[in-house]
Structures are given as C-alpha cells and as structure tokens.
C-alpha cells in the first residue's frame, strides 16, 4: 500500500471534493440549527463535515472546507464576515485533517483514537485559544466574554463534530468494507 | 422551507456594480481591516457613514433585508447584555476613570465608561455588517474566484470557492428533497423530539446527503480534467474584468482611508480607543 | 480515401482492482470523418472503451494494458489526459455534473482558461462557439436556469472550443426527454458535417440515435466486439436483441409479425424502410389479431380537484389540475422538464401544500394529514436511491419507516420479511447495502416504502439511466406488484415505459392537463407529442405504411408485447 502523505493528496479529485464539502458545510451551517441547552448557541452539525472530510482527505482539504464554508455562510447571513471565528473554523478543520494519516476509511477501517485526540485538540485550540485571542486582538472584546463563549462553543462543537463526524466516518468505512464474504441465506 | 433565492446576484448597473470584482474584494478587505483596527468612535462613525453612502449608491434594497437586520439587532443586544453581565467593569479598565450612572450592587455598577465602550462596539458591528453585505450584494459570484486569484490566492484554492458556489444550490435542493423524503418515513426533526433524537434524526438525513454528494466528485473531477484543468501553474478567468480608471480611483481612496485609520490609531490617538474621559 | 484516426490492435485492459480484463483483444479501426455508434449493456465495457480514447484510462483509472491503442498514429499511453483532450472532446452523460462554470460563458471558456488564453482572445472565441450551438443569448445564464438540452449544448460547446477532431459522446440521451434527444442527435449530425470531425456515440437508445444516419454500429458485449457493421445489416439480424439491446419499435413489430428482414429493406431508417405488399399484409393481420383491450374499471382511489400551486406567488406551476387514479392502476404523469409533474407529485405526498383545490384519498380530504401520515398512505420513491438510503444494512433500511412509527418488534420483523420476499431481497436481508448494485438499491428503496403498506406508490423516473435489461428488470418487478393490486403512479419522460406498462396517463403542459387517457393515443397525436416534448413513435409511421389507424396499431403492439412478456413468466 502506498504511504499516505500527512497533508493528503492535492489532486483535482481532492479539490472537487473539498469544494463540495464546503458547499455541504454551508448548507448545513445555514439551514440546520439545533438550539443547544446554552442560550443563543446552536449546535452546529456542520462541524461534523469538517471532521469527516479531514479524516478522508487530509488537513488542507478540511481547512478549506471550514474556511470557505464558514466565510460564505457569513456573507450569506449578512452579518459581515466574523474573521476570528472563520479562522477558528479553519484551524479546527486543519486539526481534524491531521487524523487523515492515521485513519484508513478507504479500506473499511473505523477511525481510531488519534481521530478523537486530534479533533479534541483542534477544537480546543480553535475555540478556547484562537477565536478568543483573535476576538481580543481584532475586536477588543473583553476577556471574560470571549473565553466564556469560547468554552461553551468548545464543548458543543466538539460534541457535534465528534458525534456527527464519527457517524459519517463509520458509515463511510462500512461502504468500503469487502463484501466478498457475503452469502445468500 | 420556502425556496430561497440565495446568491442571486442582480446587476443593477450602478457605479459600484461596474467596478471589477478584484477592486471590490480589495476595497472590502481594506475597509474591513480599517474598521477592525480601530475603536475610535469618531473614526468608526465616519467609516459607518462611508459604508452607508456606498450602500445608497449601490441601490441596496434595505427593505428586503429587514429580517437580517432584525436578527442582527437581536444578536447585538444579546451580546450587549452578555458583555455587561460578564464584564461590567471592562469600561473602567479601558479608560481608567469611573463615572457612575447608577449602582445595582458592588459588582454590577453601570458606568459611563462601560456605556461608551459598548456604544463603540455597537458602532463597530454596525460598520462591519453593511460592508460584508455590500460586497456580497454587488459582486458577481462568477467573479469571486478570479478576484481571489487576483490577490494571489493559489488558483486551486480559488476553484474551491467557485465550485462551492456552483454546487451550493444543487446540494441545497438535495437537502430539501432528502429531508422531506425522510419525514415521509417518520423521521422527526421538529422541536417536539428530544435533543438526542434530533441529532440521530439529522444524521439520518446527513448520510444520504453526504454520500450522494461524494458520488458526484468523480464525475466533476473527470469533466474538469478532460478539459485540461490542473495541468498548468496558472490559469486565466473568463469572468475577470481588467482594472480601469474607476477601479484605480476606488482602490486609491480605500488605501487612503486605511492608511488614515492606521495613522490615527498609531500616531494620533496612540491607543485602540479614543478616550473622552481624560 | 480512408484515413484511420483511431486504431486498436489486440488491445486488452484490466483494472487493477479487478481480476478479469474488462476489454479483451479489441481490434478496431475508425476512420477520419466516420460516425460510429457503440452499443452494449451497462458493464459490457463500452464506456471503458470510450475512456481509453480520452485518456481517463490509463491516467485516471489505472490498470494493465496489453496491445496497442493509437490515436492519430500515437500510442495513447505515451500521452496524457491534457494532450489527448486537444484531439478527443468528451461529452459526458450527466451534463449537469459536467457544467462546472457558474454561468454558460464561463463553462464554455473552461478549457481556454486552463490554457491561459488571454481574455481578449477568449471572449470572441466563446461567442463564436456559443453561436454554433445556439446558446449565444444565454452566456450569462446559470445552470439552474437551463433545461437539460441546453446544458448539453453547453457541454458540447465546452469541448468544441478546443477544436477537437474526435467527438466522443457517452450516453448523450440518458437525461433528455424524447424531443430534446431528437434535437440533440440532429445537432450532432449537423455539427459533424460543418466541422468535418469524427463522431463516436456510446448509447443504448438505438432507435433515437438512428434518427440520423450513422456509418457503423459496433456491439460490445462482455469486453469483446461482437459485431461491427453497416446499420442495415446489423438491424436485419437478431444479434442486438439477443444481447439485450432494444431494437427500433418498427423493426420489432415487423419481426413479431414474422417478416423476414433483409439489409436491402433499409431497416435502419423508418423513412427508407421498404416493405413488400405481402409483408405489409402480414403486419396488418398480426396487428388486427391483437386488438382487444382490457380496461381496468375499478373504484376511484385518489382524486385531485382543481389543484393550484405556486412557489413564489408569482409564477403558477400547477394551474387547476383535476384527475382521478383508479384502484390498481399503473398511472403515468408525463410532460417536459418544468411542466409541473414533479411539483404535482410533491403536492400528492404533502411535501408542498396546494394553494387551492383538494386532494381526496378514498373520498377523504387529506389536507390535514402530516407528511408522515400521508407517507403511510401515499409513498414516494425518489429517482436516486442513494438519496434515500440512510442505514447501512438492508433489513434496517426496510424496517426504518415502521420503527419510526412505533410498530411492535415482532410485527416489524414479519412485515419486513414479507416485503423482502416480494422484492426478491430476502436472501440478502443481512447484507450491507453497499454490496448491492444500483438496481438492487432501487429495489431496497421501493421495499422501504412498500413495507408501510401504502395505498399508492409514486415513483419518480424509476428507470432513469438504466440500460434495457435493467430497465426491463425494474419494470417487470413493478408490473408484478401492480398485478398483485398495488396502485402505482409514475413520473416519467420515457415513452416506452408508459407505452408498454401504463394503463392510463396524464400529460401536463405548463401546469395544465393537456391530455388524459390511453398512452397509445398520446404518442400518435402530433399536437400532444409536440406540446409535451415527446416524440411520435415510429409505430405511427409503420401503421401508415400498412394502412391501419395509428392508435389501434400502437395498442395492438402493446398488447402483443405484454402477452409475450407474460408467456415468458
């Protein structure tokens, strides 16, 4: 078997997949909003897409899915682009993609513990470090607010990224497992 | 869900619409960064005025976006409230003085400094919002990728944006169809269902949506490769518009604004905030 | 002077992922300026053959090549996809997926963009090519605003812009309605004459391609070339039918009637098809012996009364439609893209709500039923099974709708197993769905609706993109369901399907019903076919030749076809 590059392939197929991933991210980010128990915060199913694309296509692809998907959503929503959070989405995507080298969905294997580690680390960095720090630097938000928001987002988004992302990965792996052992009963 | 006409660009023929997409992108970035780098209320008010003038020239249909504005206002007010709740003393910290309006208790004391900080923030949000909306409203989606490429983003990354915009309506339509077809089989994603139930239900919509989308990757990439995509180090763009005089003027004006803002920030006020309290 | 442009010599190809070669010892020469039709079933290797020409094989799909494949004297394996794309232009089956630009101009220009052609040269060239395919007024249109036929023109323009010498069409008719397909074939023919290129069409809808002259028909089966010859010779023999390819209707009708077809009768074109007097008499006698028609006269099950609907309040999509579906009927809703047939089906299942009018199911107004409540009475099967399947195992997928409704475990098991048996999937009940073929997946989705025991099943384009063999498989399965009493509504633009299988049809034109009645009448009436973007069947012409009324003749043909199908069972 060929050795996997850490950054994933960058061929035409991956570019197309990334674009469709971003469009999927956008559709879900924009249309599917599940209110979470925390006020004014939605569970964003879309982060499951970055997680899944990360495991399947690598960090560059997932970074672009997060970045393009989130930026286009902000344009669409009319709020103005909230760069700090867009960048955080991209970082979360990049880390989700770091699991690529350690996953083998193409050959029907479920994602292992590296999948969880990278995603949790990535989500933590994104929402508890990058987003708040950028908010403070770019928008002079007070520390307390941004870190509380960041922590809430971290908990909720990690959960949805892992649950939804894992469901997608497992289902994808299942379509790839060998079917040679099937018998009619 | 009503059929939404998203990304429906209409060329209104105004001077703003006539600018090259590249100009719009550069101006958008310059103005956004300008409003990002400052908290000087005077500067922000001027920037807000500028973006409102641009909206006016571009014949922006404010009425059609009423809901967006209301939504935005609710968001800001919530943020406003949360700000006060979590950091009522942040204004004092920033400006170094304390002018009390009224006292609730030791922690929750409303000061003019806090009000002023939150007012500045409000203006800043208001500044950023129409900029993004304007950019989005006046740029032809097919110019988006070439504009990004124009500011030296690698062309393959630009393609990601272009294709995402291209296939967004298709995927949105698929999403609607799949969602309805699953509802007909008894999936419940409404508010009646429990949180856990809703997540499980949504993943049942997600699986066919994601996998049928992945099915198209091969076809699209074949179609692109069969027409020579990816073989060269660069590419040209059919929708690109060369910069003409008005573009150069627009860019020059925006650079001027950007530089002035930075100058105010680092040489005149020498602080993020303009402080009226001392 | 014949000058070969494509030469296969003892060419074999095996995908690395497969054990056996997909193409075996292909010897084939195609000359410059020829127009060749390649026919074969799905999986026969005909698409693989096409991919060898445009370079997707071996550069995209890797595998083992033996022998030689030369284009303009050069081995393809020494070139690249990009180099080959300058000689061979490929128009893929799915013209929507192939449309990568945000508007028409951008998509036509795509190849030039990749060649770094400067804007000043690109724009006039795009205009020129758009004009060749009659799309110059649509340069700013987005793909959402175009019809299937227009998208295909854009796809064609997108390869013509490279000034290619060989045009390769991979199933160009698969997604087009009959009238548009006819125009597409005419366009290809006219273009070829204008730019003097070599044309290769891979398609299984033989009759539609033969609307214009082709030089050769090549039959591929199981990776080998079975037949390579003049269309008249090919049609005179029975080889096509033996390999699962549908012959033109007028040819099968003549063959059914016992006429011996010879190449000199010119069977490849209905206009030139010459029949001796005795043959005409034979056909007439045969048709007369199959005239009797059974009309299903049952109670009305579903009733639509004066339905009206608009998405945006401006453009009316459904404009006062009333119709009845009888119990046990196989009912077709036909019409061109955008006529409102899909929207009508959405109203029936409650995905959209009518602005006015009423839908009655067994005389009950179903306005207040939720989507799920309606889903249990009127089930819908989407065109693409991959858009419906949300479980990994067959059993779970079929059981899904019942589980959501809180049906007891034992009852679920019983009903699922019963349904799986009906659908011929019982033996595979514990398989993952990913192990199934497209047609089997389709069956799973039908089973997953059937298990809810709906009174009516609606199928959206049930046979889209299927070759004749798979098409027959799906349709015979549906016919068996129908015979067992299941009421079925089909939305389709496939004429054969409605002609051969449906009891009744409605034709929707611009949101109104234009025709309601027997399918055999719809397809021999020029006004109806024109309005609905259908095509007159060739049986119409044959009926005229033998001197019988076209709708009686068509009905006789259908009756004969059906009784033969039943004899086979």
Quickly describe the structure.
Chain A has helices at residues 12-31, 47-57, 59-77, 83-98, 113-139, 143-176, and strands at 34-35, 42-43. With 185 residues, chain A is an all-alpha fold. In chain A, strand 1 (34-35) and strand 2 form a beta hairpin.
List keywords for this structure.
heterotrimer; A: mainly alpha; Arp2/3 complex 21 kDa subunit ARPC3; two-stranded antiparallel ribbon; 6 helices; globular; B: 278 residues; mainly alpha; 10 helices; 2 strands
Question: How would you characterize this protein structure?
Answer:
The complex is a heterotrimer of chains A (185), B (278) and C (569). Chain A is an all-alpha fold and 185 residues long. Chain A has a single domain, classed as Arp2/3 complex 21 kDa subunit ARPC3. Helices cover 69% and strands 2% of the residues of chain A. A two-stranded antiparallel ribbon of chain A has the order 1-2. Chain B is flat and about 70 Å long. Chain B starts with 14 loop residues before the first helix and ends in a 10-residue tail after the last helix. Chain B has a two-stranded antiparallel sheet with strand order 1-2. Chain C has 569 residues and is an alpha/beta fold. Chain C folds into 4 domains: 231 residues, Rossmann fold, CATH 3.40.50; 73 residues, no CATH class; 149 residues, Rossmann fold (3-Layer(aba) Sandwich); 65 residues, no CATH class. Chain C has 23 helices and 20 strands. A 6-stranded mixed sheet of chain C has the order 6-7-8-3-9-10, with helices on both faces. A 6-stranded mixed sheet of chain C has the order 16-17-18-13-19-20, with helices on both faces. In chain C, α15 packs parallel to α17. The mean pLDDT of chain C is 91. At the A-B interface, α1, α2, α3 and α6 of A face α4, α6, α8 and α9 of B.
């Amino acid at each position: 078997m060929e050795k996997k590059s850490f950054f994933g392939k960058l061929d035409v197929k991956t570019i197309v997949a990334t674009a469709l991933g971003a469009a999927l991210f956008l559709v879900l980010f924009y249309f599917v909003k599940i209110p979470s128990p925390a006020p004014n915060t939605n569970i964003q199913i879309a982060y499951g897409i970055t997680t899944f694309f990360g495991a399947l296509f690598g960090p560059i692809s997932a970074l672009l899915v997060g970045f393009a998907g989130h930026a286009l959503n902000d344009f669409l929503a009319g709020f103005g682009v909230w760069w700090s959070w867009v960048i955080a989405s991209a970082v979360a995507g990049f880390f989700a993609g770091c699991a690529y080298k350690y996953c083998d969905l193409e050959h029907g294997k479920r994602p292992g513990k590296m999948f969880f580690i990278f995603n949790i680390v990535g989500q933590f960095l994104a929402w508890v470090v990058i987003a708040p720090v950028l908010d403070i630097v770019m928008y002079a938000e007070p520390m307390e607010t941004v870190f509380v928001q960041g922590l809430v987002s971290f908990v909720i988004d990690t959960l949805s990224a892992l649950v939804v992302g894992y469901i997608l990965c497992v289902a994808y792996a299942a379509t790839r497992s060998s079917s040679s052992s099937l018998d009619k009963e | 869900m009503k059929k939404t006409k998203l990304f429906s660009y209409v060329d209104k023929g105004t001077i703003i619409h006539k600018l090259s997409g590249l100009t719009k992108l550069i101006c958008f970035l310059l103005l956004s960064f300008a409003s990002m780098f400052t908290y000087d209320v005077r500067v922000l008010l001027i920037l807000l005025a500028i973006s409102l003038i641009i909206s006016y020239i571009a014949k922006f249909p404010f009425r059609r976006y009423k809901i967006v504005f209301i939504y935005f206002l609710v968001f800001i007010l919530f943020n406003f409230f949360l700000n006060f709740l979590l950091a009522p003393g942040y204004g004092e910290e920033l400006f170094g003085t304390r002018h009390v309006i009224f006292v609730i208790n030791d922690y929750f004391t409303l000061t003019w400094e806090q009000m002023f900080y939150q007012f500045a923030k409000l203006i800043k949000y208001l500044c950023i919002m129409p900029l993004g909306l304007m950019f989005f409203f006046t740029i032809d989606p097919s110019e988006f990728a070439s504009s990004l490429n124009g500011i030296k983003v690698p062309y393959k990354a630009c393609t990601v944006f272009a294709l995402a915009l291209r296939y967004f309506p298709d995927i949105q339509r698929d999403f609607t169809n799949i969602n309805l077809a699953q509802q007909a089989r008894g999936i419940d994603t409404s508010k009646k269902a429990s949180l856990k139930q809703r997540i499980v239900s949504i993943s049942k919509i997600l699986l066919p949506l994601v996998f049928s989308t992945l099915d198209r990757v091969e076809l699209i990439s074949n179609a692109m490769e069969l027409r020579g995509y990816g073989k060269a180090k660069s590419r040209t763009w059919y929708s690109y518009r060369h910069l003409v005089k008005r573009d150069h003027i627009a860019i020059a004006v925006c650079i001027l604004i950007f530089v002035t803002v930075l100058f105010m920030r680092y040489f005149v006020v020498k602080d993020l905030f303009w402080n009226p309290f001392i | 002077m014949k000058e070969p442009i494509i030469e296969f010599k003892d060419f074999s190809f095996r995908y690395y992922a497969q054990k056996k070669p997909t193409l075996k010892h292909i010897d084939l020469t195609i000359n410059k300026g020829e127009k060749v039709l390649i026919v074969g079933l799905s999986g026969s290797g005909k698409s693989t053959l096409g991919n060898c020409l445009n370079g997707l094989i071996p550069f995209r799909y890797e595998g083992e090549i033996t022998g030689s494949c030369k284009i303009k004297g050069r081995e393809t394996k020494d070139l690249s996809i990009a180099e080959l794309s300058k000689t061979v232009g490929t128009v893929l089956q799915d013209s929507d997926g192939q449309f990568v630009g945000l508007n028409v101009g951008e998509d036509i220009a795509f190849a030039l963009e990749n060649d770094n052609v400067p804007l000043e040269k690109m724009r006039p060239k795009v205009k020129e090519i758009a004009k060749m395919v009659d799309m110059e007024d649509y340069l700013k249109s987005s793909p959402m605003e175009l019809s299937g036929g227009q998208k295909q023109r854009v796809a064609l323009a997108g390869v013509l812009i490279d000034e290619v010498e060989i045009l390769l069409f991979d199933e160009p008719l698969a997604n087009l309605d009959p009238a548009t397909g006819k125009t597409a074939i005419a366009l290809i023919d006219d273009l070829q004459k204008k730019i003097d290129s070599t044309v290769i069409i891979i398609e299984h809808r033989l009759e539609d391609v033969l609307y214009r002259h082709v030089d050769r028909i090549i039959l591929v089966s199981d990776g080998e070339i079975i037949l390579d010859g003049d269309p008249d010779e090919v049609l005179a023999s029975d080889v096509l039918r033996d390999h699962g390819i549908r012959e033109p209707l007028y040819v099968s009708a003549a063959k059914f009637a016992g006429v011996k077809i010879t190449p000199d009768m010119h069977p490849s074109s209905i206009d030139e098809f010459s029949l001796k007097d005795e043959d005409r008499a034979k056909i007439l006698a045969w048709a007369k012996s199959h005239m009797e028609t059974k009309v299903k006269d049952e109670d009305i099950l579903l009733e639509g009364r004066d339905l009206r609907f608009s998405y945006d309040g401006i453009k009316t999509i459904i404009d006062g439609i009333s119709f009845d579906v009888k119990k046990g009927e196989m009912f077709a809703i036909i019409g061109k893209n955008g006529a409102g047939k899909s929207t009508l089906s959405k109203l029936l299942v409650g995905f959209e709500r009518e602005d006015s009018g009423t839908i009655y199911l067994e005389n009950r107004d179903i306005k207040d039923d939720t989507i799920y409540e309606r889903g249990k009475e009127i089930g819908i099967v989407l065109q693409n099974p991959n858009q419906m399947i949300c479980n990994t195992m067959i059993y779970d997928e079929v059981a899904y709708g019942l589980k959501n409704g809180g049906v007891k475990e034992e009852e679920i098991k019983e009903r699922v197993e019963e349904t799986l048996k009906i659908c011929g999937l019982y033996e595979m009940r514990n398989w993952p769905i990913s192990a199934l073929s497209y047609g089997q997946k389709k069956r799973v989705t039908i089973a997953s609706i059937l298990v809810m025991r709906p009174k009516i099943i609606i199928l959206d384009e049930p046979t889209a993109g299927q070759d004749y063999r798979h098409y027959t498989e799906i349709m015979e399965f549906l016919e068996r369901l129908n015979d067992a009493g299941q009421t079925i509504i089909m939305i389709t633009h496939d004429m054969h399907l409605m002609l051969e299988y449906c009891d009744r049809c409605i034709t929707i034109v611009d949101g109104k019903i234009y025709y309601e009645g027997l399918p055999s009448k719809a397809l021999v009436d020029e006004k109806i076919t024109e309005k609905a973007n259908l095509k007159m069947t060739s049986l119409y012409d044959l009926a005229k030749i033998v001197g019988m009324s076209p709708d009686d003749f068509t009905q006789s043909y259908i009756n004969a076809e059906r009784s033969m199908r039943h004899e086979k069972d």
